[in-house]
Design brief:
Length: 64
Amino acid sequence: MSARVYYPQAIHRQSAYSSFIRKGSDLHVSEQLANVVLSLPCFPSMTELEQEKVIDTVKHFFRC
């Protein structure tokens, strides 16, 4: 179980999706979000203990 950045750059900058983006498109929100979004662990079989660990870790991060 870990937190991670799944998309280190905006999705339209990834080669698999580049053909779907019109040239000249202004995707500044996507660019901004790619720099600040973090995916936290979350899945159906997650136990309460695992949930608490994620919550405590996030709380600790923001206290430091």
